[in-house]
Design brief:
single chain; globular
Amino acid sequence: MTAKEETAKQLHLRRKLLFTKANPLFLPLEEKLSSASRIAVALWAFEICDKIKDELDSEEKEQAEEAIEICRQWMNGNVKMNKARYAILALHHSAGEKDPVTQAKMHAIAQGLSCVHTPGHAMGIPIYYFTAIVREYGIDDGFEKCLKTVRKYEEILKKCCKTSSGSNARYAGFLYTEKNYK
């Protein structure tokens, strides 16, 4: 079954999430993420979260901006995990009160911010965000947008891998201990 057929099947079955990690669309991206450093994955997630945040309405955008800023401070070692965790969980919680497209976008951001702690959350971004795209644009147009977006995500990751390895920036100490992606 093709990636598009798998997504159409999930839509037909009225699933909350239209994508899974096993969707063939994600395999190259997941492979690249699994070989990237924790810092590169976190930088990648922040860049994508910033883009998704800009698609939200003002109230949701403000909450996402606040969570992103707190998590950047966490990544930089300026706040403790509890403060970041609270901001991420608040984003997840308030998403439950929104329409399905906004809900999926907010969950995508929350998953992305969780990458600072565990890179394994990275695939939550496209799983939720692509669900939002297909719900917003339909299976044909939405899936085309997903195809373009996954390629952009790969390009952003490539850039973040270069940036993280050649940067003099200092991050929180826990980011320098390698953890398995999974």
